[in-house]
């Protein structure tokens, strides 16, 4: 049998075996950053929302709905809800189908079978009782089983206790999670409700879930709202809305959540931030609740059966349906808000903003959503039951207070929010207070719970258009952004003699397949039916038999398999590290050798590897030096090869040596190396030959080659010439020389790639080094590039510190050898282009000689065949690699997204950050193949086209102004930021290497880090307080607000921290508070701030601790080390600080407002 | 005197065009294989265990991609022949393709060896589609020109056979 041991660690550790079923869930949760999960939950909402809003048409909402809405305002009070339900409810029912969709597939067959999914379908079927619906919801979640719980976890706890009381919140809760958790408690509540709602009765089966919605009068009200939108399946969206509402209106949130919120809120906050742990904590509780709930639910559900309604409604989403409805209602609210105030078209909405602002903030916090959900659910229920719930809300105030951010999150999730019309020309303050969360796909809760974390797998459009022509109409790029080898805190690892895959398309079994019965499953990519192997029937986690749908493979969207020997072409290679060091005069001058040798000495025992690990060294200037480190020698032996035209290996056997056996020799070498070349006068660099030698050395085994280069290679093969004319940097009309000058490095990289050798390039140079040509060596061999401009051991201490920290991370991080990554997608979709560092071996296969945890990939997709009959599509990225311990492993990520057929839904599901990231990758390609100006035009046009498409196809009311859906409100800002990014800016003096490096980074940085490069974060740090602070590991981390990148936000009295990814600037205002100067910087006054300060003194004051905690926390969130520069008005670096003020006008670039006017002009042409 | 230089050119062009048609077909097949590679589930399973057949296929594809330069040279060669034979109409018909070839080769990616296709970009869907389309268009062009040369050959030969005869009448 297969043993399924789940390792908590990524690959390395042996996981804990999942003894308990429930435990798994927690694990899963943990794996995914807690946050991400939370996110996912929300996503479902979005879809719904989106759908809902779209159908109705903006116009509609405002008019009829709004008025009703007024009641909404009353919502908080309670009464309004009731009204909603009644009227809306019926209409809504029809919509429910939407929600149902997702579940549909599995339903029939499933229903009989236990499969979690199965239940869902039934739910859909059941239209009936609204009251039930709430309960039904639960059932659904339950069915999803533990997985959902995991996600939900946070909510669950809440759910039970609070859920009932919270009913009002309930709607929000709609999220799957809540359902699960709530289920138990809710049921009771539902019962009470039931009185109101007829259906409650026999929550029979899965039906109940869906039905509840339908039947529930309240639901109807919701539906009414939703209807306009279309029956958005995603319940979640609704929830978000509710939140907003809550946020806006205290009464709301608080009442429902009241009890629950309390618990969750805290967790929420933590989660959003960085860590998953909080989530994990939350998760555990839910499962239990679920279980309980499940029972209840089922019973309740069955009764509901009101299929009739369902049929109309399409219960599918019963659960979801509720959610959506709720969301709709929320939307309405929003609309109302806007509407009432402004009769006018969407544009008016602006007016809303004032009231809404809080909502925005809310958006920022995705994580929060989960907690919210419970509340939401409650809320939804309340609506249906109207009166009672409302009352509750007041009590619920707590939640609102808990986190505006949370509320914000909810907003995003809700479709309505996503589609809310924003007039950018009037609405100035669009930045959320905290980092922008990823939108949640509009899926049913159960699916969403299982979905892959957005940190690992993200799509530019969380709702996939049905046809290519629809996609073309939307004018937005469709693509995926992956971070497949990300360090995960918890990752289930499965050891099994047979890895279950589709016989036809070789897809790995994943949470989105459907089980036809216990013996057969249907692939979700090719839709063909496969048998379930006998071995798969046993569940090692629960130690039960006959429940294939509960196996970890089917419960986790991210999972790792230990691969059997069929997955090996040759015995797994050992970890092999070869260091190729430049020792020319220039290199010795920079003093990097000392740092390198010291770092390697310090970390030599933590290099990933096992007893077979090998290391080797090559140094070069105009000749190539090899080092014989054979065991038994008394000291390292240097061998010099001066024939660089025809390179050969002097002693092939003893240059790469076993690290354990020759450790002392290696240490000797590292100690003597810096002195060895101290007096060298050799200025030439034969990099090409050194690389060839290194390739020869590594090609029998494969491995990693780390190249340190400090100047332009000017000797032998691969010699380059300086192509940059410094005088043309700022004035050139177009930037030349972005493409490589020679294909030597590319060809060598391809050779390396075929021999499983990856080349990582460290470029430390003050001079032009032609990174465009050199970079190819890493680009096509899946290496990474590090660039330290003007590196000098004395003159540039900040760079030295960065180099040290980066090296430490580089040497000790996880590594995968001889890897390939294949991306599969549902039939009909195909991969158009890949972006990142790799070699494309086949249309869907990337060859990655090494894979590291800091590499990101982007993929452009196209739709080849219409996705007519599909509710959802899936993407699966499978990364096969050899771990440093010599184990062959497969890491599989699966992402599931809904398919939609209306433009408004597509817009509602747009993920503005992912779109920006993908556009940046495309623009880099364009700059190289065409020209930079072409790329710049293309980016501007991308913004114009998509907004024009939105205006023409989605907006029903035309009015002046630059109208965008709320989910794209940051799009023009990001595009402008891209245009002003180092990679693409013109008119400003930018060194060619800096530019090329920025381009490389945009392509291979994971999205989260790339976004910081594009749009840096600005915080005011002189008045940090503990209010709203995070608490991590007993450290208090203040959370200042994100500020717009505009000089108007700066003040001379303050100190501002700009976080631009690999660099941070701390700008000290001239009249900065002396308190800050003395307590944080340790200087008496402004004039005493040293010029080259790059470290904060460790003072024992509260202010200093807060500041350092905050900066340390920011640094901890990324794998590389951002250097900190403390600058004053007179500092040289002030210019680079100011260049990041992208909302301001510069000599050569438009200000944000001007850019908006330009867009508007183009759009209204 | 029935066989002039022009007739010889047409005959040669006829034979060479047949070869070009063959090249074009090979070109189309090569790109089709590149594109559909992943759609073949059997290959998919075998990506890690390349079979002999797979290796053969890869070689075939590589050969096909290397036929670019011979193709260009052949086409250039008989364009020169037509120029020498003063077959202006035929030359004009071929000039666009000649110009395209020159442009295509001038704008090839940076490469140190002859060749047109860069393995790092060839898998891009746009480039694949473009190359496929190019293959089909060329195939069509060569087929048409094949029959045109056939016609030209008979026409030239025919007029050559009869013109002396006609002259002799006077």
From TrEMBL, chain B:
InterPro entries: Cornichon, Cornichon_conserved. GO terms for biological process: vesicle-mediated transport. It is found in: Membrane. Its main location: membrane. PROSITE patterns: CORNICHON. The chain crosses the membrane at residues 7-29, 72-98, 139-167. One of its GO terms (cellular component) is membrane. It is a multi-pass membrane protein. Keywords: Membrane, Transmembrane, Transmembrane helix. Pfam families: Cornichon. Belongs to the cornichon family. PANTHER family: CORNICHON-RELATED (PTHR12290). This is Cornichon family member 1.
């Amino acid at each position: 049998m297969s043993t399924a041991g789940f390792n908590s660690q990524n690959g390395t550790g042996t996981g804990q075996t999942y003894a308990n079923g429930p435990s798994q869930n927690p694990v899963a949760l943990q794996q995914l950053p807690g946050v991400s999960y939370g996110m996912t939950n929300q996503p479902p909402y979005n879809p719904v929302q989106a759908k809902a809003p779209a159908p109705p048409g903006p116009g509609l909402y405002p008019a009829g709905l709004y008025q009703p809405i007024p009641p909404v305002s009353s919502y908080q009070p309670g009464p309004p809800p009731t009204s909603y339900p009644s009227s809306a409810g019926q209409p809504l029912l029809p919509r429910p189908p939407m929600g149902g969709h997702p579940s549909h597939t599995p339903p029939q067959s499933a229903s009989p079978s236990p499969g979690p999914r199965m239940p869902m379908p039934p739910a859909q079927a059941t239209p009936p009782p609204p009251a039930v619906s709430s309960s039904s919801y639960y059932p659904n979640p339950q069915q999803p089983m533990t997985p959902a719980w995991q996600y939900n976890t946070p909510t669950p706890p809440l759910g039970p206790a609070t859920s009932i009381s919270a009913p009002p919140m309930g709607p929000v809760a709609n999220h799957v999670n809540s359902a699960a958790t709530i289920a138990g408690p809710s049921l009771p509540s539902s019962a009470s409700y039931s009185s109101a709602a007829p259906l409650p009765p026999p929550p029979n089966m899965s039906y109940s879930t869906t039905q509840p919605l339908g039947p529930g009068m309240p639901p109807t009200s919701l539906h009414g709202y939703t209807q306009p939108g279309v029956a958005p399946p995603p319940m979640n969206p609704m929830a978000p809305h509710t939140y907003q509402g809550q946020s806006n209106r205290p009464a709301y949130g608080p009442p429902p959540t009241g009890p629950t919120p309390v618990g969750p809120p805290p967790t929420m906050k933590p989660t959003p931030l960085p860590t998953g742990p909080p989530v994990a904590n939350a998760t555990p509780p839910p499962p239990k609740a679920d279980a309980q709930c499940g029972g209840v639910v089922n019973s309740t559900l069955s009764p509901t059966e009101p299929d009739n309604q369902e049929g109309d409604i399409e219960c599918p989403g019963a659960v979801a349906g509720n959610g959506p409805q709720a969301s709709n209602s929320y939307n309405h609210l929003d609309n109302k808000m806007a509407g009432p105030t402004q009769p006018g078209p969407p544009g008016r909405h602006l007016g809303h903003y004032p009231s809404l602002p809080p909502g925005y903030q809310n958006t920022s916090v995705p994580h929060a959503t989960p907690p919210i959900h419970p509340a939401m659910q409650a809320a939804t229920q309340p609506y249906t039951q109207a009166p009672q719930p409302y009352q509750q809300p007041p009590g619920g105030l707590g939640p609102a207070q808990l986190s505006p951010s949370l509320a914000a999150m909810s907003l995003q999730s809700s479709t309505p929010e996503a589609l809310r019309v924003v007039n950018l020309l009037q609405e100035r303050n669009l930045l959320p207070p905290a980092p922008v969360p990823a939108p949640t796909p509009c899926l049913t809760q159960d699916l969403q719970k299982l979905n892959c974390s957005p940190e690992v797998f993200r799509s530019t459009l969380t709702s996939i258009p049905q046809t290519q022509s629809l996609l073309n109409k939307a004018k937005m790029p469709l693509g995926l952004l992956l971070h497949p080898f990300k360090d995960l805190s918890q990752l289930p690892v499965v050891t099994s003699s047979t890895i279950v895959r589709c016989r036809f398309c070789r897809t790995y079994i994943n949470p989105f397949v459907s089980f036809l019965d216990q013996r057969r499953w249907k692939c979700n990519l090719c839709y063909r039916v496969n048998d379930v192997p006998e071995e798969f029937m046993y569940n090692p986690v629960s130690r039960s038999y006959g429940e294939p749908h509960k196996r970890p493979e089917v419960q986790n969207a991210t999972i790792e398999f230990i691969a059997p020997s069929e997955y090996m072409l040759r015995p797994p290679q050992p970890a092999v590290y070869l260091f190729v060091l430049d020792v020319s005069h220039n290199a010795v001058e920079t003093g990097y050798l000392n740092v390198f040798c010291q770092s390697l000495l310090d970390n030599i025992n933590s290099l990933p590897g096992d007893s077979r690990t090998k290391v080797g060294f090559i140094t070069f200037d105009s000749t190539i030096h090899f080092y014989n480190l054979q065991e038994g020698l008394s000291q390292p032996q240097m061998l010099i090869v001066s024939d660089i035209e025809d390179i050969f290996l002097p002693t092939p056997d003893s240059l790469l040596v076993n690290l354990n056996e020759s450790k002392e020799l290696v240490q000797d070498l590292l100690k003597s190396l810096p002195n060895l070349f101290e007096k060298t006068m050799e200025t030439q660099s034969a990099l090409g030959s050194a690389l060839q030698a290194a390739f020869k050395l590594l090609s029998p085994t494969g491995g990693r080659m780390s190249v340190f280069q400090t100047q332009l290679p000017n000797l032998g093969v691969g010699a380059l010439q300086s192509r940059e004319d410094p005088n043309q940097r700022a004035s050139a009309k177009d930037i030349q020389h972005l493409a490589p000058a020679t294909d030597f490095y590319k060809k060598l990289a391809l050779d390396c790639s075929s021999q499983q050798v990856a080349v990582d390039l460290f470029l430390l140079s003050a001079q032009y080094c032609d990174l465009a040509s050199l970079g190819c060596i890493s680009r096509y061999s899946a290496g990474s590039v590090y660039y330290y401009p003007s590196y000098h051991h004395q003159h540039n201490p900040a760079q030295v510190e960065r180099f040290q920290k980066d090296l430490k991370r580089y040497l000790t991080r996880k590594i995968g050898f001889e890897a390939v990554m294949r991306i599969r997608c549902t039939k009909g979709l195909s991969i158009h282009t890949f972006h990142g560092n790799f070699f494309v071996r086949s249309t869907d296969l990337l060859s990655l000689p090494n894979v590291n945890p800091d590499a990101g990939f982007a993929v452009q997709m196209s739709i080849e065949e219409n996705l007519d009959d599909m509710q959802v599509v899936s993407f699966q990225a499978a990364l096969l690699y050899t771990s440093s311990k010599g184990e062959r492993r497969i890491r599989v990520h699966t992402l599931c997204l809904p398919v939609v057929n209306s433009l408004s839904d597509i817009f509602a599901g747009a993920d503005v950050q992912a779109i920006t990231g993908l556009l940046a990758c495309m623009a880099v390609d364009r700059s190289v193949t065409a020209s930079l100006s072409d790329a710049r035009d293309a980016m501007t046009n991308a913004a114009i086209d998509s907004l024009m498409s939105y205006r023409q196809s989605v907006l029903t009311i035309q009015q002046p102004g630059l109208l965008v859906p709320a989910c794209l409100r940051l799009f023009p800002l990001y595009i402008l930021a891209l245009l002003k990014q180092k990679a693409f800016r013109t008119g400003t003096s930018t060194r060619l290497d800096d530019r090329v490096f920025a381009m490389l980074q945009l392509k291979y940085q994971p999205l989260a880090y790339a976004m910081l490069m594009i749009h840096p974060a600005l915080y005011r740090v002189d008045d940090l307080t503990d209010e709203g602070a995070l608490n991590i590991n007993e450290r208090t981390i203040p959370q200042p607000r994100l500020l717009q990148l505009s000089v108007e936000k700066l003040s001379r009295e303050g100190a501002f921290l700009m976080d631009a990814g690999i660099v941070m600037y701390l700008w000290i205002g001239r009249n900065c508070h002396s308190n800050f100067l003395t307590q944080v910087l340790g200087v008496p006054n402004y004039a005493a701030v040293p010029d080259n300060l790059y470290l904060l003194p460790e003072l024992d004051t509260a202010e200093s601790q807060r500041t350092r905690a905050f900066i340390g926390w920011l640094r901890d969130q990324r794998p590389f080390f951002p250097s900190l520069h403390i600058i004053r008005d007179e500092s040289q670096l002030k210019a680079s600080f100011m260049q990041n003020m992208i909302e301001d006008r510069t000599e050569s670039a438009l200000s944000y407002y001007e850019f908006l006017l330009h867009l508007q002009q183009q759009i209204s042409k | 005197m029935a066989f002039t230089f022009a007739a010889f050119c047409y005959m040669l062009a006829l034979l060479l065009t047949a070869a070009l048609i063959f090249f074009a077909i090979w070109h189309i097949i090569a790109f089709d294989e590149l594109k559909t590679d992943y759609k073949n589930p059997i290959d998919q399973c075998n990506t890690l265990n390349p079979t002999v057949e797979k290796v053969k296929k890869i070689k075939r594809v590589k050969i096909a991609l290397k036929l670019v330069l011979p193709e260009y040279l052949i086409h250039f060669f008989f364009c020169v022949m037509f120029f020498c034979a003063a077959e202006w109409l035929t030359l004009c018909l071929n000039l666009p393709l000649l110009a395209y070839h020159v442009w295509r080769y001038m704008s090839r990616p940076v490469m140190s060896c002859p060749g047109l296709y860069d393995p790092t970009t060839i898998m891009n869907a746009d480039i694949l589609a473009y190359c496929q389309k190019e293959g089909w268009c060329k195939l069509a062009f060569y087929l048409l020109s094949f029959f045109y040369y056939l016609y030209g050959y008979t026409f030239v030969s025919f007029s050559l056979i009869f013109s002396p005869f006609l002259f002799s009448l006077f």
